Amino acid sequence: MTSHTELRSQKSGLALLVIAAAQLLIVMDGTIVTVGLPNIGAGLSIAESDLDWVLTSYALAFGGLLLAGGRAGDLFGRRRLLRAGLVVFLLASVLGGVAQDGAMLIAARVLQGVGGAIIAPAALSLLADTFPAGPERNKALGVYGAMGGLGAVAGLLLGGALTEYLGWRWIMFINIPFVLLLLIGTLAIVPGTRERGGLDLPGAITATLALGSLVYAINRAGADGLGDGLTLTVGAIAVVLALAFVTVQRRVRNPMLPAGVLADRGRLGANLIMLLMGAGQLATFYFLTLYMQSIKHYSPMITGLAYLPFAIGIGLGSAVVGPRLQARAPVRNVLATGMTVAALAMGWFSLLTPDQNALVTLLPAQLVAGVGLGIGFVAATISGVRGVAPRDSGIASGLINTTQQVGGALGLAILATTALTVTTSQPGGTPEPEALTSGYTTGLLGAGAFYLAAILAAVVLLRPASQNRPQHPV
To answer: Which residue numbers delimit the Major facilitator superfamily (MFS) profile domain (predicted)?
Structure first.
């Protein structure tokens, strides 16, 4: 009996390693190109005004297809979909690494986003299939949730090192051995449950087009302003498609997003909180990277290394502080604590100045922010999938990832526009570094406002009752 138990534990541990690594991969690739963008632009002759498409194209495909990817896993087999997504991601990485122009690279990033949208919900659903409800699953979800924050920092660290020492193409090529190892590792994962029912094709199409249009409109608004004609048109199309999606869901027999998935107030709150955290986190990385490279003139490698405190903080928050809080307090209190810590860190970042020593604000504030976000990501992930019927775990997993992606696009668009307005409104004669830093610190304060809004959402939507504590079975 002991031998069987030990064998099962070892296999579950290996499965968790593969699932967490898959999540780390797709989150990491959302930011890995950030530090290397100037080198990519120079290497492929991409205009500076078009460079943001290297980031946006991935977010568009990833955010737009997550719900469809989650439902496909429920219907066609989650391990099968995980493997298919990894193969798509592998091919996209090869294509990106050999890209000869900007169009080819952007196409590869779109394909990476498609692969990521298949991988993410399948991985989270397989985790729920592998670990029984209760403390064992919550620990596994804690590891998985930590990847949401750690992956973004890892992308910045790895992107900086690869760009400086091997060239920007290795930002793509590095995925090849990673994916091959993951494909081998899927042998340790249970096939996962497979639900009966038909594919809601009208729902999948309207959801994908609505989310893709929304992400595009949000990103365009960040570059061209909310009054831009195309931005308003695409935004209106997104609203119409969203309404069409809701109508379809009410009429079809097997809806892609069953009403029960969002019927629980706590689950709805978890998705809203994840949206707000995504909005704040992506904007934080954006402004800190600009500050380090445009104001402090750090090299790509030094910029990546400067994010180490963030990575350490997320590790502490997700693996040390978070689990202890979850064992003693309701999830509402845990989330509120994490978001309070993150908001305080944004206030600390607002003290940045052009000539300031990194030890005063830049590095220690990152450590604090990482702890807060590490606590928050784990608690929100656990809440977002708790109590979901097995047949709907894929779509619930896709939804929690979708809200983070859409939140990131929305937050960056709003805060980038705000920062630019602050910078350009500085009095005449203000030195450029000071004007830029004023815009960046205002954007970071805006990220703090998103975290404060997440606290409000936790207080209003999450119940303080003991059954909400993550350590108890569903």
So the answer is: 15-466
Of 221, 253, 285, which one is at a domain's C-terminal end?
Answer: 253
Query: The domain containing residue 344 runs over which residues?
Result: 2-199+254-468
The pLDDT tens digits for 113-167 are 899 989 988 888 888 778 877 777 777 877 877 776 678 788 888 888 898 889 9
Query: Are both 318 and 453 inside the same structural domain?
Result: yes
**Alpha-carbon distances of 450 from 78, 279, 367, 408, rounded to whole Å:** 33, 7, 19, 11
CA 124 from chain center: how many Å? 13
pTM of the model: 0.81
Looking at residue 9, its amino acid is S
**Where does residue 471 rank: exposed (0-12), middle (13-18), buried (19+ CB within 10 A)?**
middle
Q: Residue 329, SS3?
A: coil
Among 370, 365, 384, 377, smallest CA distance to 334 is for: 377
Tokens of 262: 């969002």
Residues of the chain with pLDDT under 70: 1-10, 48-49, 148-149, 192-199, 219, 222-223, 464-474
What does the alpha-carbon distance between residue 398 and residue 213 come to, in Å, rounded to a whole number? 18
User: What is the rounded CA–CA span in Å between residue 305 and residue 302?
Assistant: 5
Asked if residue 17 is part of any domain, the answer here is yes
Buried b (16+ CB within 10 A) or exposed e, 268-282: bbbbbbbbbbbbbbb
* 474 occurs within a structural domain: no
Phi first, then psi, for residue 252 (nearest 5°) are: -80, 155
- C-alpha 29/C-alpha 151 separation (Å) is 8
8 A C-beta contact, residue 362 and residue 418: no
Percent of residues in the chain assigned helix, strand, coil, to nearest 5: 80, 0, 20
Residue/partner pairs of 471-474 with CB below 8 Å, 24 or more apart: 471/134, 471/135, 471/138, 471/326, 471/327, 472/134, 473/132, 473/133, 473/134, 474/133, 474/386, 474/387
